[in-house]
Amino acid sequence: MFVDRVKIHVKGGNGGNGMVSFFRAKYITHGGPDGGDGGKGGSVIFIGDEGLNTLMDFRYKRVFKAQNGEDGGKRNCFGKDGENIIIRVPVGTVIREAQSGKVMADINKAGEEKILILGGKGGKGNQHFATPTRQAPRYAERGRTSKEYDVILELKLIADVGLIGFPNVGKSTLLSMVTNANPKIANYHFTTLSPNLGVVQGRFGDSFVLADIPGLVEGASEGIGLGHEFLRHVERTKVFIHVVDAAGVEGDDPVENVGKINRELEEYNSELLKRPQVIAANKTDIPEAAENVLRLKEVYEKEGFQVFPISAATNKGLDELLSAVAAILRDYPEDIIFEEEYEEYDEVAVDIEPFTIEEVENGYFVVTGVGVEKMIGYTNIETEKGFAFFQKYLKEKGIIEALEEKGIQQGDTVRIYDLEFEFWN
């Protein structure tokens, strides 16, 4: 089975907490602070792997978590960093944030690495907070909580040449004749469900990768059938071989069929019709094809499309077709990479850090949330400057307003993780 779209959950490792500790030894009962720092959490890293061509493995494992950093220890011992998690994906994989649909990464090359989530920073031990006037700080930073996302992996085939056309026109047969690919071939009245890749070797010029794109149907650009899934693979091919049943075996008109497929390409992405395209008029071993070949040439050659009469079943005309395609590829600009125009992921706009407020008993309110926890972790509220920042944060994030909506009164108690204070506003 070919799998080209899956949803998974990824999470970076949290940073280890800093340690609150004081040096103790024989005859030393009031030593200085010696709490070590927490280790950094592991990152989530995606790598393009040319040995993979499907997302099948992700059907069985959907959750990927990097290792948390270890907490700091006594005597200035640092916590161990968490191990990164490496996720290997096929080249051509697009990674989208599931909620917004925006693109977080696009893996286009073998060996390309993308750090999708950085591991959380380790918290500092209490040794860092000693001052001449505050020599025994009983405070250490918590490790930063790393981010986590639901992401969608989409695989788009990257091929030099794509075979396009309606189902049952001979694309799979053509692929099998000119490459070592072995697609299933029969007189099906439905389309191939999985893209197939093959390499055309040598005698037609430089070798190139040829993809049999599953057959399109009318309405594919609107998502009818598996239209969008199939059209996704068309976007990353440089040249199209438009295969058409010149004999009209199914009773339809090959001239009209070419126009129908091109309209689907244009409606899905207008840039697709700007790419080089040649028409392979297939099944010319059937006598009825001769007249339709002439009609195809009359209509489409004046539009700039070369028309090649072929028979994929008997190898007729294949050398001429593939030689022309190889010549197009030789003149193709190296610096052009066709990509979908998409909106990139915006960390600020998309990522939100909600908080919750609960009145656990009369006059006692508890505030929790990732952002609040981070703020407490890196703010020393025992200083005047730190306390001012703390008050500003609570107001800007709407926490003061939310507490008032919950009915908090002057003098009530608020708890934010390990911090408790009386509410006065």
Automatic annotation (TrEMBL):
OCT domain ranges (all copies): 347-425
Complexes and interactors: Monomer.
PROSITE patterns registered for this protein in UniProt: G_OBG (PS51710), GTP1_OBG (PS00905), OBG (PS51883), OCT (PS51881)
Database matches in CDD domains: Obg (cd01898)
Main location (coarse class): cytoplasm
Cofactor: Mg(2+)
EC class (word): hydrolase
GO cellular component: cytoplasm
Ranges for domain OBG-type G: 159-330
Chain residues that bind GTP: 165-172, 190-194, 212-215, 282-285, 311-313
GO biological process, one term: ribosome biogenesis
Known EC number: 3.6.5.-
Underlying gene: obg
NCBIfam families recorded: Obg_CgtA, Obg_CgtA_exten, PRK12296.1, PRK12297.1, PRK12299.1
Name under which the protein is recorded: GTPase Obg
InterPro entries: G_OBG, GTP-bd, GTP-bd_Obg/CgtA, GTP-bd_prot_GTP1/OBG_C_sf, GTP1-OBG_CS, GTP1_OBG_dom, GTP1_OBG_dom_sf, OBG_GTPase
Domain of life: Bacteria
Family to which this protein belongs: Belongs to the TRAFAC class OBG-HflX-like GTPase superfamily. OBG GTPase family.
Function text: An essential GTPase which binds GTP, GDP and possibly (p)ppGpp with moderate affinity, with high nucleotide exchange rates and a fairly low GTP hydrolysis rate. Plays a role in control of the cell cycle, stress response, ribosome biogenesis and in those bacteria that undergo differentiation, in morphogenesis control.
Record flagged with keyword Endoplasmic reticulum: no
Record localization: Cytoplasm
Annotated binding of Mg(2+), by residue: S172, T192
